[in-house]
Amino acid sequence: QVQLVESGGGLVQAGGSLRLSCAASGRTFSPYAMGWFRQPPGKERECVAAITLSGNTDYADSVKGRFTISRNNDKNTVSLQMNSLKPEDTAVYYCAADNALIRFKIGACDYWGQGTQVTVSS
Q: Over the stretch 62-91, which tens digit does the pLDDT of each residue have?
């Protein structure tokens, strides 16, 4: 059974940085798309960043230039480097994976992590 486990969340002041990591368990697991969603308090879940096996990336407009997603295909891990954090970035961040990019884009991923809290104070 495939499981995704996130780490790296926490409390940081505005302008600071955090690095989120996601480790996928399970033999022969190599999803086409991996990435991160987030859900701010009282708001809808949104896709933050995605990366494919070939290394193609996509970011939400709100995080472009500040967040960087990376992936290690051999280790089945994905990370999100978050710089210049803003209070608006406060949310629960979820690692996700799917073998179809279209399902990933609409938030219908087959695999999800448990979530990690990121809080940015002003």
A: 999 999 999 988 888 999 999 999 999 999
